[in-house]
């Protein structure tokens, strides 16, 4: 199992990550599609070849072809949106927010899966990419669609743990080459 391989690869000092990696996925209140869509989207957002190599095959197995594609689309569109909207936020001049973005984002309106699932994956990727404006926007849409805060928190926990695993494994790989 991919999770076991990632846990085994983590150094002893990252014991908490080992424990969290299993628990955020196996004890989640989210549906299997929500969990594994978030796992795939976040793995892509981390840009870690090792994490992607371990988690992508299992995500592909557990997701319908439509959900698999939509999770990848969430990672792709948020890679663009998170940079753009984070930059607007950091500039601090609200007049930029009044200008049209003129960026295609049609996948958000028609992701090919349940809109709440796609929004959840976009939220998780936005957490990894650190875009407060996108986090606020996706959280608001999810709450309006009736998703409880606990489910939103689950997606954030998945994002946090997978991101930490990716960062740790990439840093260990870099240290091994020194």
UniProtKB/TrEMBL annotation:
Subunit description: Homotrimer.
InterPro entries the UniProt entry points to: AhpD (IPR004674), AhpD-like (IPR029032), AhpD_core (IPR004675), CMD-like (IPR003779)
Residue positions of the active site: 131 (proton donor), 134 (cysteine sulfenic acid (-soh) intermediate)
Reaction(s) the record says it catalyses: N(6)-[(R)-dihydrolipoyl]-L-lysyl-[lipoyl-carrier protein] + a hydroperoxide = N(6)-[(R)-lipoyl]-L-lysyl-[lipoyl-carrier protein] + an alcohol + H2O
Gene3D superfamilies found in the cross-reference section: AhpD-like
UniProt keyword Disulfide bond present: yes
Keyword Disulfide bond listed: yes
Protein name: Alkyl hydroperoxide reductase AhpD
Domain of life: Bacteria
Function summary: Antioxidant protein with alkyl hydroperoxidase activity. Required for the reduction of the AhpC active site cysteine residues and for the regeneration of the AhpC enzyme activity.
Organism per entry: Carbonactinospora thermoautotrophica
Domain Carboxymuconolactone decarboxylase-like: 97-175
Primary enzyme class: oxidoreductase
Its EC number(s): 1.11.1.28
């Amino acid at each position: 199992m991919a999770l076991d391989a990632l846990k085994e690869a983590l150094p002893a000092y990252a014991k908490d990550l080992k424990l969290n990696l299993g628990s955020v996925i196996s004890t989640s209140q989210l549906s299997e599609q929500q969990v594994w869509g978030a796992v795939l989207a976040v793995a892509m957002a981390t840009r870690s070849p090792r994490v992607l190599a371990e988690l992508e095959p299992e995500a592909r197995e557990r997701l319908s072809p439509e959900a698999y594609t939509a999770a990848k689309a969430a990672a792709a569109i948020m890679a663009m949106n998170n940079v753009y909207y984070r930059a607007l936020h950091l500039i601090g001049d609200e007049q930029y927010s009044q200008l049209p973005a003129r960026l295609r984002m049609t996948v958000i309106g028609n992701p090919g899966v349940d809109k709440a699932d796609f929004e959840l994956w976009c939220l998780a990727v936005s957490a990894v990419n650190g875009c407060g404006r996108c986090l606020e926007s996706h959280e608001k849409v999810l709450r309006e669609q009736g998703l409880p805060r606990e489910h939103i928190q689950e997606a954030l926990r998945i994002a946090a743990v997978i991101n930490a695993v990716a960062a740790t494994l990439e840093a260990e790989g870099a240290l091994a080459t020194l």
